[in-house]
Amino acid sequence: MSAAALRHDWTREEVAALFALPFNELLHRAHSVHRAHHDPNAVQVSTLLSIKTGGCPEDCAYCPQAQRYQTGVQAEKLMSVEVVVARAQAAKDAGASRFCMGAAWRAPKDRDVAKVAEIVGAVKALGLETCATLGMLTGEQAATLKGAGLDYYNHNLDTAPEFYGEIIHTRGFQDRLDTLEHVRGAGLKTCCGGIVGMGETRAQRAGLLQTLANLPEHPESVPVNQLVQVPGTPLHGTKALDPFEFVRTIAVARILMPASMVRLSAGRQQMDDAVQALCFFAGANSIFYGEKLLTTGNPDVEADRALFRRLDLHALEVEAEPGTVHADILEPCAA
Q1: By percentage, how much of the chain surpasses pLDDT 70?
Q2: Is 279 a catalytic residue?
Q3: Quick check: helix, strand or coil at residue 221?
Q4: Percent of the chain scored above 90 by pLDDT?
Q5: What are the distances in angstroms from CA 49 to CA 46, 59, 209, 263?
Q6: Which residues contact 231 (CB under 8 A, 6 or more apart)?
Q7: Which of 29, 87, 98, 100 is labelled catalytic?
């Protein structure tokens, strides 16, 4: 499908109607869209590292890194280039093709961006795709990161515009849209999704996906996070989302954004293998790989390798730029 054929005019009613389809009908439709745009047995693999943990001044109700909540997460300084490169090399050796770096800032200072740019350049030199999530960026900061070799910038919308104020008060929804505009303007690819299971309604989940699909460009990666409930955060104790509703969310995301990579992100540790398999069938084709996502758990490498073998999945290789080296992606599906 050409870029011109991708829709950016979905109505809330249309998205709600997709969610309301019978489960098997929805999965059939989503899988058909997925097969038309992607290898249905390939999954892109990323590893995420927190390069600057804790001490965030914001009040995101789900986040254990907010300094105002007592979650046991201690504030740490930005990691050195050498430490990050060592972790990136280990991730590559374990099978990752993309290395994502997260820092708990509301909005980094220019001197912070300069330091991260140095790190990005060193990681890029390993032959990995690079991604960063640092908070709000100016256009100039985005251009600096692009010049250093950054491929993707992650900046989630988190939830529907009408539910956003129930979750975050220290940053407006428009602030997030502005950062995405700066990132696109710098020529960076966008990684943008949200979190479900925060007490939102199905209509509000539809609102999140509608907003993502109606952005000027569909995000190249769409992470769908399931709330990880951390003691000490305001959302701890929220009623868990039904797993089939999560699968529905993946399926609708695939239909709305056919060419995007839809990623199973936070919360995968709480999903059993059958739910993950349904998600892959519904159109998920990217995962975070490794034992930890910033400050919360994730299925370990060996468990993911075993799941890939059982489902006959293989990891997607990125096309290397001249002078770079492909990552060795997982092990072959054969035992």
Answers
A1: 90
A2: no
A3: strand
A4: 71
A5: 10, 22, 26, 16
A6: 71
A7: 100
